[in-house]
Write a structure and sequence with these properties.
- The structure is a single chain.
- This protein is an alpha+beta fold and 335 residues long.
- The protein has two domains: 56 residues, no CATH class; 198 residues, Glucose Permease (Domain IIA).
- The protein has five helices and 14 strands.
- The protein is rod-shaped.
């Protein structure tokens, strides 16, 4: 309290009549810092009473604290019961730190794992993409119609067994397909291009007389081996068109079989890339056929002929024994 705290004057005697007074009397007067207790209302209002108006002080009603005691008792009893139950258990008691860590764990959001990345797409097969492109381009079968010529047996198909060292892409050695058996039949350029190489010599060890034509700016080549003759107009650098006669089917460079055309395709994506062979059989199975006119100087294309079946197709009918020619010799490699 401060220096101006209230002072109780004569708490045992009435300041007016000097009679006894009860400290619990309601008749109280406060003047400044002085508190006077009177015995009655008359003494409080007598001339000897206080000069100020008395202040009737009503005793404050007692606070009802029983509700808080009841709540406290319930909490204390529950806590004691829990401690008693856990006290008989062998499990370790959970401390306040453990509880705090539990609340933090519940409040911390659980990280969501991102979805797994999709598997990488396989690299496209360049040969498959090229074949698909050639299917939709203006290419023709090297031998004219009206029938479509395909390899007669496995020995004439791409990759058939051949002796000697051959390029690895040729599987067992045969780097092309063997077509036809009519000596002197015209052989046609399969696509527009430029003559890249002509061999008119005997060349018995490397496919006999042959012509090589460059297509698509020298990224793709067609080869025609075992020719009987090549027109004088077919010279390196000369442009040719699809269907133009570039030679006659023959047997030059053939040692153990009849006349036939050995047809090959090679790809060279760039000037520094390695030139390699691809299987032409899926293409000649669907390429349109050239139908020549009577004097074979002109002709037309037809797509009316049904596609051929590659020799390795399981549904392809086997030829009769008399239709199977003698096995052709080893197909020549491109020099």
């Amino acid at each position: 309290m401060t220096a101006a705290a209230a002072t109780l004057v004569s708490p045992n005697a009435c300041p007016s009549c000097k009679g006894p007074v009860d400290v619990r009397s309601r008749h109280v007067a406060i003047a400044g810092a002085t508190v006077r207790i009177y015995c009655s209302e008359a003494c409080l209002r007598s001339p000897d009473g206080p000069a100020t108006t008395p202040a009737a002080i009503e005793p404050a009603p007692p606070r009802r604290r029983w509700g808080w005691w009841l709540v406290g008792g319930i909490v204390l009893g529950t806590t004691s019961l829990a401690i008693a139950v856990r006290g008989g258990s062998d499990e370790p008691r959970e401390t306040a730190a453990d509880m705090a860590r539990g609340f933090v764990a519940m409040a911390t959001p659980v990280p969501v794992e991102p979805p797994p990345a999709p598997p990488p797409k396989p690299e496209p097969d360049p040969d498959a993409a090229l074949l698909d492109e050639l299917v939709h381009d203006a290419w023709i079968h090297p031998l004219a119609g009206p029938s479509r010529r395909m390899p007669i047996n496995h020995n004439g198909a791409f990759g058939a067994e051949r002796p000697g060292e051959r390029p690895p892409e040729c599987v067992s050695g045969h780097c092309g397909v063997d077509l036809g058996n009519s000596w002197g039949e015209p052989v046609h350029a399969v696509h527009d291009g430029v003559v890249d190489w002509v061999n008119r010599g005997p060349n018995d060890e490397h496919g006999g007389v042959f012509v090589k034509i460059a297509h698509r700016g020298g990224t793709l080549y067609s080869w025609y081996f075992h020719l009987a003759a090549v027109p004088r107009s077919i010279q390196p650098g000369v442009k040719v068109t699809a269907g133009q006669v570039i030679g006659l089917l023959g047997d030059t460079g053939v040692a153990r079989s009849g006349p036939h055309l050995h047809f090959s395709l090679t790809v060279k994506p760039s000037k520094t890339a390695h030139e390699r062979y691809i299987d032409p059989e899926p293409l000649i199975a669907i390429w349109p056929l050239w139908i020549a006119n009577e004097n074979a100087s002109h002709g037309r294309l037809t797509t009316a002929v049904a596609p051929g079946l590659p020799v390795r197709e399981p549904d392809r009918p086997r030829p009769k024994p008399e239709e199977v020619p003698a096995p052709p010799d080893a197909a020549p490699e491109a020099p």
